[in-house]
Write a structure and sequence with these properties.
Layout lengths: L2 E5 L2 E4 L4 E8 L8 E6 L6 E6 L6 E3 L7 E6 L4 E6 L8 E7 L14 E2 L3 E6 L1
Parallel strand pairs: 2-11
Antiparallel strand pairs: 1-3, 3-8, 4-5, 4-9, 5-6, 7-8, 9-10, 9-11
Length: 124
């Protein structure tokens, strides 16, 4: 079992930055991929970025490439999403996810464990 708790969301102006954190409990976190998803009102939950268990392999959705960076510190059982050059369309609830594979896949079914989400609001 893995439990995930996100933090770091908030209100920021367009062009600003935020860093989300995902604190994990459970022995298996360091051996599985981690992902960040987001869901805006009225829209489907979508992948933002993913990172392999080792941190060496990453995946980014096209709409965040060059702006967001995913990373993890297995010694601290924590994952991160650094978000720069934020846009109003980045406004959403951001979810951390973990499991089931060691590599980051871009679909929800590849992740077994989910956090409760943290709200990110970008004003224009």
């Amino acid at each position: 079992q893995v439990q995930l708790v996100e933090s770091g969301g908030g209100l920021v102006q367009a062009g600003g930055s935020l860093r989300l954190s995902c604190a994990a409990s459970g022995r298996t976190f360091s051996s599985v991929a981690m992902g960040w998803f987001r869901q805006a009102p009225g829209k489907e939950r979508e992948i933002v970025a993913g990172v392999s268990w080792s941190g060496l392999a990453t995946y980014y959705a096209d709409f965040v490439k060059g702006r967001f960076t995913i990373s993890r510190d297995n010694a601290k059982n924590t994952g991160y999403l650094q978000m720069n050059s934020l846009k109003p369309e980045d406004t959403a609830v951001y979810y951390c996810a973990a499991g089931r594979y060691s590599d980051p896949y871009a679909y929800r079914g590849a992740y077994d464990y989910w956090g409760q989400g943290t709200q990110v609001t970008v004003s224009s």
